[in-house]
Amino acid sequence: MEERSLRITGADSNFFNKITTTLTRILIPTKIGINSMLISMKRNSMLKYFEQCVNADESNDLLEKKYDTAYTAYLETLDKYVMDSIYKKVKNGTASEFEKNALSKYYEVISLKEKEYIDYKYRKQKYLIDLDWEGVKQNGKEKIKQKYTNFYIDKMDNLYKSILKNYSIKLADTTNINDTTKEWIYTRLFYTLDDYVQNILSLKIENDEEKYTEIIDDYTKFQNFTVGKLDTRDVIEKNMTLLGISRKLFTHSIPLIVAEQCYEKLLKDTRMFIQDTKISNKREKAYNLLITLIEDYNIKLLSTKVYWEKPEEKEQYKIFWDKYKEMNKSKQNDFKEYIKQKQILFIKDDLKKIRTSKIDYSKLEKYYKRKLVDYGAIKELHNKCISCGKYKGNIRVKTNKVCA
Q1: Reduced to 3 DSSP states, what percent helix, strand and coil does the chain have, rounded to the nearest 5?
Q2: Overall domain count for the chain
Q3: Is 272 among the domain residues?
Q4: Which member of 65, 253, 262, 351 lies 3.0 to 4.6 Å from 165 by CB, making a disulfide possible if both were Cys?
């Protein structure tokens, strides 16, 4: 009977599929309507307890528990909406582009569950809230929009901090991490910062610009990188700007030890770009970026560093810092000379670092030496062969050698 039933169904599959598809298309809007109503109810309940927690004069465990319960119920309703409504609409070919993208992002988040559970836990909350946020912005009443905006900023702030803290823990743990994994973490960290500045910080500045005057210049600079296609140098400069913003907004989520690793990563990428590019104009722009990056790294980060693992590194930095402060005194008197002396100081300091690196920076070293010759910081000495008397054009060679 089972085989016969399967054969009959198979024979009339087109007919039954048409009926099923038609019925599903009729029922889906009703299902969406029910889900929308449930979401609205759960959202209003959650917002009520959120406001009470914010306005409470002191911590109230019972109130916070009610808010947590309402928040969990709200997320569960949103999750159900994705599976009951959006999934079925995509499956039956009635979904909009927004709904198709929403489902695609949903599966992207779900894929993290097995391998990156902590990341998944925070990103799923972020995804669901973002999904509802789009609906509230388009269809919500003004009063609901304002209430939800306050909740949205507060909750997203906490979620982004948790995501960034998770990446920081991974980067700080050097016991069991390979270079490929590290590259992935760096990429995700900068991507998360980018996402935060575009979507959350922009909203916070829009609501209260005076509160963020300290970072408004960095924010304006970042906005220049949101338009047009970015090359490698642009991406590095954008990440440098994001890192500068993070030092003011995420000092706990991205502690100094991790920020230092991020700066070193950007320094490495910039050095490699200078070495690899064959276009002189691009190389010069990358060099100027490297000088800015070295200054940011030394002034914004190393100058605030308290604990040094190697005492000799601390002593070397003290020497560098004293020279930098002394040089800064001449800034007002002769700005051009100040710029030249600053570059000489930075190049000489970076030369010491790349010479002890495991990476082959021989091309960059040659480029640095040429810069120092141009600035008059070192002399170009030719390699004269004792035997034949010919000169071999090398920079800063101290002794004569015999030709091979």
Answers
A1: 80, 0, 20
A2: 2
A3: no
A4: 253
